[in-house]
Write a structure and sequence with these properties.
Helix content: 25-40%
Largest sheet: 9 strands, mixed
Shape: globular
Number of helices: 6
Strand order of the largest sheet: 4-3-2-1-5-9-8-7-6
Order of helices and strands: HEEEEHEHEEHEEHH
Distance between the termini: 49 Å
Number of strands: 9
Structural class: alpha+beta
């Protein structure tokens, strides 16, 4: 059941661990296929996760396959799928995102690449891990965004598939690192709404981010 998705979730876990966005058992990853979700299990070392350890649950939360129980944040993942119809979800305790979640209320658009995540990144209020309250405040913070920080906890990103979701997690940690370094030098400048719209317009006109055939 969901053999391909279970392989992808395990591979993503290993990649994120090697990039130090997750550590040990802290963090969770999932990918959806229809009404089923392949998701990391609770208590497993993500750097050494194998496809057979990945759990499968229904969008209704019922266990469908795998010997291990799903992550304690399963309801957060399912909430993203139900509310935003995402294809994959990644929750990390990445160092810089977690650090900033302890001190700021919002990560402003300090670089135009943050527009790929939807704009300024909100910080959801603190709530106990695995709780319905945490799921609710985090889902609210993700409104019109592909990412949110979770106060004194970590970060969450989503995407249409797992490759994009993982890339979004890497991008968010990079943006947090840039903000931290800028804040160490002074007050970071944020792009205003006009500047953000100019980026969107230029990206559309230039097909930014996609390979382009060179002119002869």
């Amino acid at each position: 059941m969901l053999a391909r998705e279970r392989e992808r979730v395990a591979a993503a876990a290993v990649r994120l661990a090697r990039e130090r966005l997750v550590i040990g058992t802290a963090g969770n990853i999932s990918e959806r296929s229809g009404d089923l979700v392949a998701i990391t299990p609770t208590g497993a070392n993500l750097e050494h996760l194998t496809p057979d350890q990945v759990t499968v649950v229904g969008i209704d939360g019922q266990h469908r396959a795998g010997e291990l129980a799903a992550t304690s944040e399963v309801e957060l993942h399912l909430g993203v799928y139900r509310r935003y119809d995402a294809g994959a979800v990644v929750h990390t305790h990445s160092p810089m995102a977690t650090a900033l979640s302890c001190v700021i209320d919002e990560l402003p658009v300090i670089h135009y690449q943050m527009l790929l995540l939807g704009g300024a990144i909100r910080v959801a209020p603190y709530a106990t891990f695995g709780s319905p309250e945490l799921a609710e405040v985090t889902l609210d913070a993700m409104q019109d965004r592909l990412a949110a920080l979770m106060s004194n906890h970590g970060a969450i990103v989503c995407g249409p598939d797992l490759d994009v979701a993982v890339d979004n997690g890497v991008l968010l940690e990079w943006a947090c690192t840039v903000y931290w370094r800028a804040a160490a030098l002074g007050t970071p400048r944020a792009l205003d709404k006009r500047e953000q719209q100019q980026v969107v317009t230029a990206a559309i006109a230039r097909n930014y981010g996609a390979p382009t055939q060179a002119e002869a």
